């Protein structure tokens, strides 16, 4: 496989369930080794999109290619190199973690040792011979991650992978995903916990009512959204610096703190002035968060829609 | 094929884990042993082999019990996994849907086969150990009964799996399975009998009755075991019927096999087309 060939390609993909349009006209490519977040509220079409990529459902319109093949054509070869973690993953509670993972490993043509190595990797080796019925939510989720990583997949799709995980495990999961993407595996994860994606993913695809409303790196989305940058200054004394123009909407927060927001292109000029002013004792810069970006893109979508 | 065997192995493992195998085997063994030793008393007077008596009583029992066990086991096969949320993950693996259906079928037939062979085999073994006279013909009849019992189980496993692929909730699957059992095991014969009495031999020909019997796996099984084998026929009081019915044992077995294959193919076809 050539490195520049997209691992997952969508062209005008739509999926209707009766009158409900779960996905409409979705087009994007995921290159090899990309770590991409699929963001949207519940029912925005994230899970449907993943099911389409896995070939579990067929698109009503459009073209979809995963690892160069049509996933709905039942191509077992492509599925061997795909991993999926469904939202709130469940397993037969009567079986042990090891039994389940070894079964899945054999389905992918992997030896049982591969399953055991993954149990070790997700920290379940001690619980491997216990029944899944006795596992905590976090342990089940880790078993789910382990099965998604079987067979050194070229792409992993993770549906809300961090819900129900405690912060330490979540951190470990993101480290694992970064490592995977570094090794050339395409990682697509859906989430609505936006704040934790900051700095973890290189690209964000925002979905709303089945449509892709924004797609790009965080920096690109920030530039597109032109959301104001928030600046917080700690001022010495009560003097109001004359360069604080009213169109930056400065307001006092108390304790000598002043907050203002400025358009991105005015940011550097403002910073130079603030740095040169001896009245400014400290300064904090807050770029718009992913949450704000998300809200912005959803609003602009609503503005366009009739 | 590998996928099918892996699926079947998983079903059997789950069957062992949730005690299905043990429960079914113990139930069948207990009933078979009871019948074997209760049935051994009249055997002396009639002068028939002890095993033939067991074949008659066990096949009468199997008609009710095996379909029930098979349907209880299989009605949940697809819809249960769908409702528990394990089906989609399974299907995201390099495994075709027909492999899932056939694998589950083989696994369930394996469970029923093991329970039947062990349970009924225990009865035959106990009879031999107790010093009852057992003829070669008796063993043959017993062997045919075992084989056709597994086939009967397979037919109802296939029907249960078909139900499981057609409905979207477990309750409905269970309801339909029970209905199917009532219809095929109890109501069919009553209706047929009622029809024959009402008709009083006016319009229904022997061929029509034969066809109606073949249309029900339980009847095909009953005829095969009670009327198909000469020595057993005398014992079961079906001598007249066995003589008159134009249904050869091979045809009855073929009917049973068709009852296993056709619903299974239908289930595979439905499941492959179904949107999840």
Automatic annotation (TrEMBL), chain A:
<dbReference type="InterPro" id="IPR017871">
    <property type="entry name" value="ABC_transporter-like_CS"/>
</dbReference>
<keyword id="KW-0067">ATP-binding</keyword>
<dbReference type="InterPro" id="IPR003439">
    <property type="entry name" value="ABC_transporter-like_ATP-bd"/>
</dbReference>
<dbReference type="InterPro" id="IPR027417">
    <property type="entry name" value="P-loop_NTPase"/>
</dbReference>
<dbReference type="Pfam" id="PF00005">
    <property type="entry name" value="ABC_tran"/>
</dbReference>
<keyword id="KW-0547">Nucleotide-binding</keyword>
<dbReference type="InterPro" id="IPR003593">
    <property type="entry name" value="AAA+_ATPase"/>
</dbReference>
<feature type="domain" description="ABC transporter">
    <location>
        <begin position="8"/>
        <end position="234"/>
    </location>
</feature>
<keyword id="KW-0813">Transport</keyword>
<dbReference type="GO" id="GO:0005524">
    <property type="term" value="F:ATP binding"/>
</dbReference>
<dbReference type="GO" id="GO:0016887">
    <property type="term" value="F:ATP hydrolysis activity"/>
</dbReference>
<dbReference type="InterPro" id="IPR051782">
    <property type="entry name" value="ABC_Transporter_VariousFunc"/>
</dbReference>
<protein>
    <submittedName>
        <fullName>ABC transporter ATP-binding protein</fullName>
    </submittedName>
</protein>
UniProtKB/TrEMBL annotation, chain B:
<feature type="transmembrane region" description="Helical">
    <location>
        <begin position="53"/>
        <end position="74"/>
    </location>
</feature>
<dbReference type="GO" id="GO:0140359">
    <property type="term" value="F:ABC-type transporter activity"/>
</dbReference>
<keyword id="KW-0812">Transmembrane</keyword>
<dbReference type="Pfam" id="PF12679">
    <property type="entry name" value="ABC2_membrane_2"/>
</dbReference>
<keyword id="KW-0472">Membrane</keyword>
<feature type="transmembrane region" description="Helical">
    <location>
        <begin position="141"/>
        <end position="163"/>
    </location>
</feature>
<keyword id="KW-1133">Transmembrane helix</keyword>
<protein>
    <submittedName>
        <fullName>ABC transporter permease</fullName>
    </submittedName>
</protein>
<feature type="transmembrane region" description="Helical">
    <location>
        <begin position="175"/>
        <end position="198"/>
    </location>
</feature>
<feature type="transmembrane region" description="Helical">
    <location>
        <begin position="247"/>
        <end position="271"/>
    </location>
</feature>
<dbReference type="GO" id="GO:0005886">
    <property type="term" value="C:plasma membrane"/>
</dbReference>
<feature type="transmembrane region" description="Helical">
    <location>
        <begin position="105"/>
        <end position="129"/>
    </location>
</feature>
